[in-house]
Design a protein that fits this description.
globular, six-stranded mixed beta sheet, alpha+beta, single chain, three-stranded mixed beta sheet, 18 helices, 14% strand, 470 residues
Length: 470
């Protein structure tokens, strides 16, 4: 704490506003001067150890939350947007962007929203279909994008919902093969909800609720882990209505569609937290050194569920290893993404082709490992695997996904997958975020030049990439 300067102006200002305190009133509670509070909030002075301890004691804050730079993901998003040639030579430098994200995060988010609207409008204008329909909503952020950002900036951890799920998990009792039956019995006893496992007329139907008969039908073709998850998600909508409404009201979504999608996302969050309750899950993860296959066996969960839950383990004062997690379809599109690390996924482009997640489709059934380094010098331990999800029989649809889970190399020794890693000697693959913002000049897999960088073409010389980055 003494060797690192910690600037937390925006967080202190948000805390003061949350408790409806003036700078003078906050100063009195922290036993410092009002001018000192003003200087901290404007990031002119860092937090001292004594002020941090006073904040922790007076406001029940986790010290690690003050020491973590929560603006990292916002900074990454802003840098990506600013790489667009649209901004010409007026692009702020890195230090200026850091100042904006630290001191005016709402302004930074507003700029990102404006940029997304510009991109969407620009894409629509080049589309004949959009030109004919002249959709007035073309420039707006989509409902899915709005919900994505809600979870993104909430660190993918929703504390009150997580704790509510943990309390119910305790009521359901110990883990075991009959836990699904106990959940079904609980639904009947507590909510007069009848749950039946049945084969639907259409194999793609996962669940269906008959309101009049108060019957929830779950596709019997699903794995037991998915059956548990779907029942738990439905239960969240019945049992946590007030809490869900409070969370949605606080988020202030712009459209009814976004609110409805977020409600579904929060119900799914509750389901994952009920399936793998925080305290027991974190204890097991540490005991088994984050072995995802072992955790899947212990909690009756799929590898996707296990990995996604690991990416949410950011409870104040009880944090697990900070992970990034992503799901990628066969076309290379990221369909789920979250990062509690310095690595932030691209918002506007595809993933780096050198990332091992793309090779996971070729190594079906295996967990493959990659040691990787991003252009900013950060190093990561990356895991990847793939799975198939089938609906129906021979003529049914098969969905194929690859998954990525990783952490910074400093945490590798806490993972069973990193027991033999020697950061000083091992080779690290150079990867980026996406080609459009990657700074690497000599990558043979580059698909497009980086935005904002000039290129030169030599008619007398041809390399794998047919241009040089200026």
């Amino acid at each position: 704490m003494a060797t690192r300067k910690i600037f937390a102006g925006a967080r202190l200002r948000a805390l003061r506003n949350q408790h409806r305190l003036t700078q003078a009133e906050l100063a009195a509670r922290l036993d410092i001067s009002a001018s000192y509070v003003n200087q901290i909030e404007s990031n002119q002075r860092p937090l001292t150890a004594s002020v941090m301890l006073a904040l922790a004691d007076g406001f029940n804050l986790d010290l690690s939350s003050l020491m973590t730079d929560g603006s990292d993901r916002l900074l990454a998003d802003l840098r990506e947007a600013m790489a667009d040639p649209l901004f010409g030579e007026s692009v702020p430098n890195l230090q200026e962007l850091k100042t904006v994200t630290a001191n005016a995060p709402d302004m930074a988010r507003a700029l990102l929203t404006l940029y997304e609207a510009y991109r969407k409008s620009n894409e629509r204008l080049t589309s004949v279909d959009a030109a004919l329909t002249r959709d007035p909503q073309s420039g707006m952020q989509t409902a899915y994008e709005e919900v994505r950002d809600f979870f993104h900036y909430a660190d993918n951890y929703i504390d009150p919902l997580d704790r509510a799920a943990e309390a119910l998990a305790t009521e359901l009792g110990e883990f075991g093969p009959d836990r699904l039956n106990r959940l079904i019995a609980y639904c009947q006893e507590a909510h007069d909800l009848r749950v039946v496992l049945t084969a639907p007329n259409r194999p793609e139907v996962i669940k269906e609720f008959d309101r009049a008969g108060r019957t929830l039908s779950i596709n019997t073709r699903l794995e037991p882990s998915s059956q548990f998850f779907q029942i738990a998600a439905h239960l969240a909508g019945m049992e946590q209505t007030t809490l869900l409404d409070q969370l949605l009201d606080a988020a202030s979504f712009k459209t009814a569609d976004a609110r409805a999608i977020a409600r579904m996302g929060l119900a799914n969050y509750f389901a994952g937290a009920l399936q793998m309750p925080y305290g027991a899950y974190l204890k097991a993860a540490e005991a088994h050194r984050y072995d995802i296959e072992e955790l899947g066996q212990l909690f009756g969960a799929s590898l996707e569920q296990v990995a996604h839950r690991l990416s949410t383990m950011q409870r104040p004062r009880e944090r697990g290893v900070p992970f990034f997690f992503a799901r990628v379809d066969a076309a290379g599109t990221i369909t789920k993404r979250h990062s509690a690390t310095a690595l932030q996924f691209a918002r506007f482009g595809g993933a780096c082709p050198l990332w091992n997640v793309h090779r996971a489709f070729e190594a079906h059934g295996q967990i493959i490992r990659q040691l990787a380094e991003t252009p900013d010098g950060n190093r990561y331990l990356c895991l990847a695997w793939s799975s198939e999800k089938r609906s129906g029989g021979y003529h049914g649809i098969t969905r194929r996904y690859a998954y990525a889970l990783g952490c910074e190399i400093s945490h590798a020794n806490r993972l069973v997958y990193g027991s033999d890693v020697d950061a000083a000697r091992d080779r690290f693959d150079p990867i980026g975020i996406s080609c459009r913002i990657c700074e690497r000049r000599s990558c043979p897999q580059r698909s497009v030049p980086p935005l904002g960088a000039g290129i030169s073409i030599d008619a007398d010389r041809r390399s794998i990439v047919p241009y040089q980055i200026g």
